[in-house]
Amino acid sequence: MAAVKGIPYGMSHFEGVITQNCYYVDKSMYIPLLEQQSNYLIFIRPRRFGKSLLLSMLRSYYDLLEKENFQKLFGQLWIGQHPTPLQGTFQMLHLDFSKIGGDINSLAERFDSYCAIQLDGFLSRYRPYYSDEFAQRFRAEKKGIEKLHLLDAEAHREGYPLYLIIDEYDNFTNVVLNEQGHELYHASGFYRDAFKNYKGMFERIFMIGVSPVTLDDLSSGFNIGWNISTSPLFNQMLGFSEEEVRTMFRYYQDAGKLKGDVEAMIEEMKPWYDNYCFAVESLKTDPKMFNSDMVLHYLQTRLTLGAAPRGMVDPNTRTDYNKMKRLIRLDQLDGDRKGVLRRIATEGQIVTNLLDTFPAEHLARPGIFPSLLFYYGMLTIVGTRGSLLRLGIPNNNVRKQYYEYILEEYQEQRYLNLTDLELLFTDMAFDGQWQPALEFVAKAYKENSSVRSAIEGERNIQGFFTAYLSVNAYYLIAPELELNHGFCDMFLMPDRGRYAEVEHSYILELKYLSKEKFEAEATRQWEEAVTQIHGYAESPRVRQLCQSTQLHLIVMQFCGWELARMEEV
């Protein structure tokens, strides 16, 4: 009886996944499609979508030194039955730019040094193909760029086809842009010059990264790259479809390792890990994609502990959150960008153009910001509006990151003890004692100077409440949820899959009037709010979302930045 396959969580080496008998979600059927594109490809996906594993698979497939291992590595995969003529025909050079770091003033030197080390490793790997005389000259040269020129001439003379794979090609430029800005970036021409040398040297190049910040600059030095990131042909090349998740979970269930209802597990994961779409043409044809690392994290926890992760979010994503935070430099953004973040967090989406490329000098422009969020996985394609795209928050994992951005800003202005707030939310969820928690947040809103100095209004209040309500562990916060042909301000949906003790759910309707208008319009506005919230409660979806909890309808009315009236209606 075959041993049960291991979970390849955190693994990025394809050969290790196969030889160590780990479960591999087959993506090899995309190899022929990739070969039909340009010979020089750029592919962008958010972090933790399996990019490095894909590159490792391509390296093993095309490497002439792995040709004899083809059946061992690929025999059980789709490409094992459908190999292409290019299989096992290249000498492969792999560069991972995430390994280049250090002081900004030493980056050029470190870049060249890293390339030199990788090229020495390349020669060691393919040593039988090169003469002793060439190897001696090659190793005597210390500079990476000179080694590259020597290899270019010798490989062409011998007729050896070369394939270059670059992982995290954008890492270096993101570091420079984040720390020093685009002026220094453009002064650092060595990076772009390197790509000029790649041009014509390699028969095929595949570059993968997170953001397209450098694409315009690469095209100026490279001039032949083809960006397939938003092509519908490759919408599902990374991440897991629902069927791929189902097949994997049933494998472990059939092996006796996974207990429970697979369909219930998928439904539990969907709000947290699903709903990615990277090509507008795929909206109506392809399933939405799951974040692959998140699914593996969930599965590993299920197999180990017999239950879902208590927090549902992989703690390793905290590193990714910090990288994204540094890149967008929230504390240095202008008001337009902060407004974009708040609007997306409150409304869940934004209508905009999706830019395929944007040069470094344009990065600070507010119009670029939604596209940057898309490529980082903070937004995904959810629909269209005319010629524009509707980009939305894909899932609760990402939504929590938005709330954290906003919450950190509020906390910097006026610190609140969030543990005290969590205790109030616990009473709200288990005992139905909602008034202390909502009054706590309303008081914080009144006393926060950054809020008072901002433009007042329902959106402003809603953003503040959403940020602080997100601290709770018991509810999925759904702002602007469509119910009965309207959009309720906030629905606190119980997460009883993880906290079965939750007995209460809530719909909040937040209303705002300026001090000048309050006396004249307050009564009418209140009556309208009561009618609205009862209409939402009558929606057929509500009973399903409440999961047998007691539903509370709460209307909160603000006069300026001060809570004037709050009642359960």
Defining traits:
alpha/beta, Rossmann fold, 4 domains, 15 strands, elongated
Short characterization:
The chain has 569 residues and is an alpha/beta fold. Helices cover 47% and strands 16% of the residues. It has a five-stranded parallel beta sheet.
Q: What does this protein look like?
A:
By secondary structure, this protein is of the alpha/beta class. It contains 25 helices and 15 strands. Strand 14 and strand 15 form a beta hairpin. It has four domains: about 200 residues, Rossmann fold (3-Layer(aba) Sandwich); about 80 residues, no CATH class; about 80 residues, Arc Repressor Mutant, subunit A (Orthogonal Bundle), CATH 1.10.10; about 160 residues, no CATH class.
Per the CATH scheme, the topology name of the largest domain is: Rossmann fold
State the share of residues found in helices, binned by percent: 40-55%
Largest sheet: 5 strands, parallel
Q: Could you tell me the mean pLDDT?
A: 86
So what's the overall shape? elongated
- CATH class group of the largest domain: Alpha Beta
Q: How large is the radius of gyration? A: 27 Å
Which architecture name of the largest domain does CATH use? 3-Layer(aba) Sandwich
What would you call the structural class?
A: alpha/beta
Task: Note the total helix count.
Answer: 25
Report the end-to-end length measured between terminal Cα atoms: 62 Å
